Amino acid sequence: MNRKEQQKLAADLADTQNLLADTKRLVNMSNVDAVEKAQVAQAAAELKAKKDIADYKRQADGKINEAIEAKIEAKKNAKLKVDAAKKKEQIAWGSLATILFCCLIAYPAFLNDLWDTLTQPFMWIWNGINDYAYWMKNPYYERYIEGATKRYSYSDGTAWLLRITSLILVIALIAGACYGIWISIQYYRKRWCSLSLKVLLISTGSVIVFGEGIHSIMCINLVALLIFVQVTYLGVLIYLDGYFETKSKDRYWMRIQNQ
Q: What is the pLDDT of residues 130-143, one digit of tens each?
């Protein structure tokens, strides 16, 4: 190339280099601006996040305080209601006891039978123990001959066999009776409900008030009659439990019991 063309090429190269330098400088400036803008945006986001966290924490603390106050207030109201219910229950039981006491004073037949119930079993047990002790000392059997009852002793071997057998039977009967009574009481306590209370109050009041009339119709201990009524009610309760369970009406049956 001639000199003129070489100078033009050098000038174009210089212009290109200047353009590249300007472009590089602009790119660097744009990167710096972008980084600064990103840092500013990050700082603003962090500040907003901190503010939001503080607001949420303040709201959460407020809700926690409200919940604590509501819990304290609910406990206070529940305690007041429980105390009021206990007071009403005490008044109701006191009134019921007073009414039953007045009925007992007005109709003493039940008291007499209650005294017999408390004393006669001990006499029967004491007499039974004495008779059994006498029999254990010398086992015998009785026969009615020519208008008179005569006693005959067993042989020694038979006597000892009867002593051991009778003692085992007596212990088994006592244990079985105690176990049966305990099971019945536990089941009665487990199945206690409003219906049980109503049946108990109605049966007790009826036996006390109509005791004299019951004695005029039949010779029966009123306490034994009351126990019989409760045992009968317990049997009916067991039957109805099974009946409503088979009919899938447990809720209906529970509603009836707790009305």
A: 888 888 887 776 77
> How many of the other CB atoms lie within 10 Å of CB of 226?
20
DSSP strand pairing (148-153 vs 140-145): antiparallel
- The two most distant CA atoms of the chain are separated, in Å, by 176
Look-up of token digits 């990050």? 42
Please give the share of the chain, as a percent, with pLDDT higher than 90: 3
Contact yes or no for 154/162 (Cβ under 8 A): yes
Asked whether the beta carbons of 207 and 222 are under 8 A apart, the reply is yes
DSSP string, 185-244: HHHHHHT--HHHHHHHHHHHHHHHHTHHHHHHH----HHHHHHHHHHHHHHHHHHHHHHH
d(CA 209, CA 211): 6
- The backbone torsions φ and ψ at residue 151, rounded to the nearest 5 degrees and listed phi first, read -105, 140
Give CB contacts under 8 A, 24+ apart, made by 134-142: 135/166, 136/163, 136/166, 136/167, 139/163
Q: Say which residue the tokens 């229950």 belong to.
A: 89
The pTM assigned to this predicted structure is 0.54
142: which 2 tokens?
């009785």
d(CA 243, CA 256): 14
In the beta sheet, which residues pair with residue 141? 152
CB–CB of 120/106 below 8 Å? no
